[in-house]
Fold this protein.
Amino acid sequence: MKYYTLKENHLFAKAYRSTKRAGGKYISVYVMPDYHAARLQRAHPLKLRINRVGISVTKKLGVAVKRNRVKRIIREAYYKALKTYDMKTGRIIVIAARTAAVYAKTDDIYRDLAAALIQLGVASEKEGTEG
């Protein structure tokens, strides 16, 4: 399932300022309710409620090649989490990379992301699957 990207700066700022946060060694995850989820659901072709996801990587992490690599890895980890866990919908999720993410592998970031999403109550184990 495709996720929708978050592009508005004011939503990133609101997520940083007034939401629940969980972090690991490689990433920090911010989650807040999406107050426009019902409007977006009506506009969605399949009438599904969706999450909007924003990935934030600062210039402190290095040149553009390194930053884009980190964004690709975070995006892949989120796709893997969508397949593995039941995700609650109607949320804005902001994933901010930390300095250690430059040298991390996909599995490392996936473990941090999954732990953070479970801690924040956004993800839960799928029915019928075992550990």
